[in-house]
Design brief:
Largest sheet: none
Distance between the termini: 16 Å
Helix content: 55-70%
Structural class: mainly alpha
Low-confidence stretches: 1-9, 19-29
Number of strands: 0
Shape: elongated
Number of helices: 16
Length: 374
């Protein structure tokens, strides 16, 4: 079973100790950089020199032994990156001058300092910063992996909120790497963070990142769906089921957004994930007695699945004759009686079984795609 709450308490403790939360600095390490440098669309040699002076004052404190000085320097490092007018040119040059230090902190023995290196890299949101965050996805320390995923989520959000310093190809590579972590990652809260990061990538509205957007939701559905499809009854605890629901809601919302439509393959992948949720819920019902809390979590998964499939069908083939899933599956599961559970299992078979709705048009999933038996 995937470790969950005990590990998260440790991860959360280290992350809080690392002050990933944006607390205001007590005092500044030095005078801030002039706004006209931070916002400049291109940098003169004098501007680059000013950045170098600023960085040279920060680095000794970031790499020194004094913890209080480290956090003041961390705040100073973040200060220009948190300005709304921070330009691409500034982030690239500033990151270039900071990168060796961030790499050293990321590889060092201090978890707290490695976490803060991830935070700065996430705020830089540039290609070299993303490369550092990617390498940290396999760090042996759970807290550092968690912070690396959060940093990548920040980078995706930066693409949406300000002029991007990450090229589309790099963003797509990150999406692929994150999705592969669903198979390798064993910490449940890192997995939850990956779901959030992929959703952030999927919410990028720029036409230049359309491929990244569809790829994010396609791989979220397919790669997380593989984990769901292989799960045994009882393998996921209620917290982990909440993460599966988060992914389902993200896919439902993505399918619903008309202004930024998804491609056909992405829509079909979303429907496939919905089918995986229905099949998982059927295996759970057959596996053992369900606590009220667990049953409630499964009811929410079924409700999300019921929303995704007809929406996806309408987007794939508008007016294509999809007649919908069996009505009231979530209500049958919520009934919590032998009779209602039996009705639920019949409904799931009618939805995802060999002759079920998802095996027909417009999805045409293979008859054995969804495993409903434990």
């Amino acid at each position: 079973m995937i470790p969950h709450f005990p590990i998260f308490r440790r991860v959360l403790g280290v992350v809080v100790a690392g002050v990933l939360l944006a607390l205001p600095p007590v005092c500044r390490a030095q005078q801030p950089l002039p706004p006209e440098i931070v916002s400049a669309p291109s940098l003169s040699s004098d501007a680059r020199s000013s950045i170098g002076t600023y960085v040279s004052e920060i680095v000794p404190k970031l790499t020194g032994e004094d913890d209080a000085a480290f956090f003041r320097a961390r705040d100073a490092a973040l200060e220009p990156l948190q300005q709304p007018s921070c330009s691409v040119a500034f982030r690239i040059e500033y990151g270039r001058q900071l990168m060796d230090t961030l790499k050293s902190l990321a590889a060092g023995s201090s978890e707290v300092r490695a976490i803060n290196a991830m935070r700065i890299a996430g705020q830089l949101a540039s290609d070299p910063a993303v490369d550092l965050l990617q390498r940290s996805l396999t760090d042996e320390r759970v807290s550092v992996r968690y912070a690396a995923v959060l940093g990548l989520r920040m980078a995706f959000e930066a693409i949406e909120s300000q002029p991007p310093a990450i090229v589309p190809d790099s963003a797509s590579r990150v999406v692929v790497l994150l999705s592969k972590r669903f198979d390798a990652e064993q910490d449940a809260y890192v997995i939850d963070a990956i779901i959030r990061a992929l959703d952030a990538a999927g919410r990028i509205t720029s036409a230049n990142y359309a491929a990244t957007r569809d790829q994010a939701y396609t791989l979220l559905a397919k790669e997380l769906g593989k984990r769901v499809a292989n799960a045994k009854p009882g393998e996921f605890d209620e917290g982990q089921l909440a993460s599966l629901l988060r992914a389902g809601v993200a896919l439902r919302d993505a399918v619903t957004r008309i202004a930024v439509p998804l491609q056909r393959d992405t829509l079909i992948a979303a429907a496939g994930y919905a089918g995986d949720l229905l099949a998982l819920s059927a295996r759970e019902v057959q596996g053992s007695d369900l606590s009220p809390e667990r049953r409630a979590a499964l009811v929410n998964l079924v409700a999300a699945a019921q929303a995704i499939v007809p929406l996806a069908a309408d987007r794939v083939a508008p007016g294509g004759g999809f007649t919908g899933l069996p009505a009231g599956m979530n209500d049958a599961l919520a009934g919590a009686t032998r009779t209602s559970d039996a009705r639920f299992l019949e409904q799931v078979d009618a939805a995802v079984g060999p002759n079920g709705k998802l095996a027909g048009t417009p999805f045409s999933f293979p008859p054995t795609r969804f495993r409903t038996k434990p």
